[in-house]
Design a protein that fits this description.
Layout lengths: L2 E8 L7 H17 L4 E3 L13 H4 L6 H13 L2 E11 L5 E11 L2 E7 L20 E3 L4 E7 L6 H9 L4 E5 L7 H15 L3 E4 L2 E3 L4 E3 L3 E3 L5 E4 L5 E8 H10 L12
Parallel strand pairs: 1-2, 2-3, 7-8, 8-9
Antiparallel strand pairs: 1-14, 3-4, 4-5, 6-7, 9-12, 10-11, 12-13
Helix pairs in contact: 1-3
């Protein structure tokens, strides 16, 4: 696949209201697919927000009911869906361990998951961190997704590792809060420029008990040029990503060939 029409769902997340959020996400995703989107990205923990107070109630264990619901949508609409949920698994001492669990669904099937490896702030009191950074290969679409979550946008090593491992598109899902809009914009474009990779940076809007959110979701090409950008409010942004353009850009500026691995 050389082109794919991508959509970012920038939505306000109702705190701890799982069914409300899932219904809204599916409704907005339906609008995106009706406009031709085949790759749809949802914000970080889109179904609950950071619902720490009710985490035992709203977190999900495999096979993850929220992912199953989205898989049905993905199969019906022949699309790819990416986001994260509050995941849970039984630990060594039979207690539940929670995580910020990223997922990628391809045409109805769960193609892969990614447990957030760099956890931030209050997350450290509730979540375990992942220990693997690998892209997710979409076999039917022949596209490889590099997924990172929110705070990880600040770590260039994450995007670089995903790119070197074969990612075709970098995707950042986030709840990046006010007043950090300039940080968000700078980092989102930088990750694209320094890795010569298209980047879908999908943030939430609205407020929760801890923060307010500026939105600002964007889709860039491999030059780091912003091709679609959101304001503060709920919306859908879309762009037709040209994967052939990435190869042309890397030939024009052979960044990866010119790295000095002998000295760094």
């Amino acid at each position: 696949m050389t082109h794919i029409k991508a959509a970012c769902i920038q939505m306000d997340i109702s705190h701890c209201s799982k069914q409300t959020n899932i219904s809204k996400a599916i409704s907005m995703a339906e609008n995106a697919t009706s406009d031709g989107a085949k790759l749809i990205v949802l914000p970080e923990v889109f179904s609950t927000g950071f619902c720490y107070g009710n985490i035992e109630e709203v977190s999900e264990r495999s096979p993850y009911p929220t992912i199953e619901a989205l898989s049905d949508f993905s199969k019906k609409h022949d699309c790819i869906l990416i986001g994260s949920i509050l995941g849970a698994e039984v630990g060594d001492k039979e207690s539940l361990l929670y995580s910020n669990l990223g997922f990628c669904i391809e045409f109805g099937d769960l193609a892969g998951t990614y447990k957030k490896t760099h956890i931030f702030g209050m997350e450290k009191s509730y979540f375990t961190s992942g220990d693997t950074i690998l892209p997710i290969k979409l076999k039917k679409s022949d596209i490889t997704i590099g997924l990172e979550i929110c705070y990880e946008l600040r770590f260039p090593e994450v995007a670089r590792k995903l790119t070197l491992a074969g990612a075709d598109i970098l995707i950042t899902i986030a709840e990046f809060p006010d007043p950090k809009v300039n940080v968000w914009k700078s980092l989102a474009t930088s990750r694209a420029i320094e890795n010569q990779i298209p980047h879908i940076a999908c943030n939430r809007s609205g407020i929760d008990p801890y923060s307010s959110f500026f939105g600002g979701s964007m889709i860039t090409n491999a030059w780091g040029e912003v091709k679609a950008e959101a304001g503060k409010d709920e919306c859908i942004i879309m762009h037709d990503i040209d994967l052939d353009e990435t190869n042309k850009i890397r030939k024009a500026v052979p960044l990866f060939k010119d790295r000095r691995l002998d000295i760094y």
